[in-house]
Amino acid sequence: MRGRGRASLIVLVMSLPGLHPPPSAFAQDQSAQGNTFQSKVDLVSVYFTVRDDKKHLVSDLAQDSFSVSEDGQPQAIKFFAHHSDVVLNVGVLLDTGTNMSWLLGEEAQASAMFLRHVVRHTDLGFVVSYASRVETLQLPTSDIALLRHATESIGSGQGAIGLSGEHSDSEPGVSIPGGGTVGINGRRIDQNRSAHLYDAIRVSTHRYLEGEVGRKAVVIVALSGDAHSESTIADALQALLENDVIAYVLQIYDGSKRDHCDVPHIYEKDSDGESVLKKLAEATGGRMLEVRGIDKLEAALDEISDELHHQYSLGYYPENKNWNGKFRNIQISAGDKNYKVHARKGYYANRQHQTSRRPTNLTPPSCRLTQLTQRKTNFPASSAFLPLSHLE
Hints:
Blueprint: H1 2-15, E1 26-30, E2 37-42, E3 44-51, E4 66-70, E5 73-75, E6 77-82, E7 88-95, H2 101-118, E8 124-130, E9 134-141, H3 144-155, H4 197-209, E10 215-222, H5 233-242, E11 246-253, H6 276-283, E12 288-292, H7 297-308, E13 312-316, E14 327-334, E15 340-343, E16 346-348, H8 351-355
Parallel strand pairs: 7-8, 7-10, 10-11, 11-12
Antiparallel strand pairs: 1-2, 3-13, 3-15, 4-5, 4-14, 6-13, 8-9, 14-16
């Protein structure tokens, strides 16, 4: 069934007026001498959004409002479109590392509402939970009923829920900024809480978004920062950038004294005091939203839904023809200085990666992280990690 759905997506996308090939795919020209197709040059395409100085979405700008450069060199825009109706592949990644059923219930309800609003019959959505393990709750589908059932399962105790037990001394640990033994609301901080956030990002991207056409995004509902992942934040970021996936991160904070969550909502910051998850999201063209109270989660997800339905895209043929696998910076500017463009920071100029495609035999919904960790070492040797310091 999955293979048939994917073929339909390709036909739909390529039939839309003025639509360019999928990001990082080889552009193909039909020879005037006959029906022979030849590879001309790689087309780089970027999905992006624009906001004004009041942070309102701007969705009615024309092509001549924008300019694009690569590593500081101006590029000629060859394709431009508004993409509210283009196929969307979106995954929701839910932090289920809590023993509080009311909190999981709020997560489930808000996520189900988001998927109902954003996934249309031409789109695909999937649901992944993460805590002490990463688990697929629903494979990519356009069936809203299945997606709703998957999100509701975390509230009924069927997902990968619950705080982890004690870890051995040999297991890698992630310190919680702020430290101490007592956290917010006077509750004890569990230094051993597992939140395999980076693993969830990397595994979800490679398993369900690699090789897909159209727009691709992951929405991460986080109760705290990463802890005990086998992947690093660099691994997660590289997976997103290599596959043109936009990441949105919702960082939950205490909204009132009655929160009393058993998870301290504490997130890692860099040396400049900036959230590392914020930098990861913005590097992909997404955003990090601070959600002050779990009851504000639905409104935050509505904001992301609105953004996903008001995107632009542009495409250009890079002047640099040296496909050496190195990271190239992309800068998109709007003519009006009051407009801010949100787009991914760049791409890896690697043909080996661009021509690869995800196998069609998917792991069943009960897949575990331990079954997927081999992918960690499968990156092309020429693709260097992009340090977060590079994203300033």
